[in-house]
Amino acid sequence: MSIELAAVVLTKNEERHLGDCLDSLAWADERVVFDDYSHDRTVDIARAKGARVISHALEDFASQRNAALQTVEATWILFVDADERVTPALADEVRHAIEGAGQESPAGWWIPRYNYMIGHRMRGGGWYPDHQLRLLRRGKARYDPAHPVHEIVILDGEAGTLQEPFIHYNYDTVAQFRRKMGRYTAFEAEILYLEGVRARPWTYVSMPLREFWRRFVKLRGYRDHLYGLLFCGLMSWYTLLAYWRLRQLHAGPTPKP
Fold it and tell me: Of 26, 100, 143, 237, which sees the most CB atoms within 10 A?
């Protein structure tokens, strides 16, 4: 029997979030946990909730999503992160979008997302509406390997936009935000390095200021008051860190004496 919709969750040690995430996906025809060999209770939780588990080593996020698209046999794939939840209203909208969808219908759907940062639902700064292209018709979508993080979908067809949002429990603490962004800046530096970008002396000032202005002013991060100031400031700092790491990559390893 062919599966119309499979909800796919990429995981690596997600025991804290996975149970609630899978509960919010109980309406899907199939739930698949695409796991990067977790060593906590992630796999046990997935199986206890009735999800299918596929173990696959993570190379990068784009490759992992492409592997899931190739492996999971369903007409439509809905990618959901472990720290995201699908509300009943969004579930109904997803079902309505794919019911009777023909070849001329959208090949994918953008879904807005509410981001909660240390308990606050962000209203600006790029954290809302924060559209994610996550509902994909299998065979008409793939992830661009040139963007291993902050993945970009290459879609063979048009994309529609849903109205109901994901709920994303993004960060519980500033320390958690800093740890995650620290990992992302390493990816960002490698991408810039492979693109041949070089930091100039003024880059270490201009790019962080540009990022702060983009998020706090253009994307209205000021709507979140102190939360906006805090997180837009941190994003500016991590822009500086990414370019500093880019400088280190161009410098190469320090010669041994």
Answer: 143
Grouping H, G, I as helix, E, B as strand and the rest as coil, residue 104 is: coil
Q: Helices marked H in the chain — which ranges?
A: 15-23, 42-48, 61-71, 88-98, 174-194, 203-212, 225-251
Q: Report the percent of the chain where pLDDT is more than 90.
A: 84
Please say whether the beta carbons of 197 and 246 come within 8 A: yes
Residue 55, classed as helix, strand or coil, is strand
Sign of CA dihedral 201, 203, 206, 208: negative
Tell me: the pLDDT tens digits for 233-250? 999 999 999 999 999 999
Nearest CA among 114, 110, 40 for reference residue 84: 114
Q: What is residue 216's DSSP assignment?
A: I
Helix (H) or strand (E) holding 159, with range, is: strand 159-161
- pLDDT tens string 173-212: 999 998 888 888 988 898 899 899 999 999 999 999 999 9
The two tokens of residue 34 are 């695409």
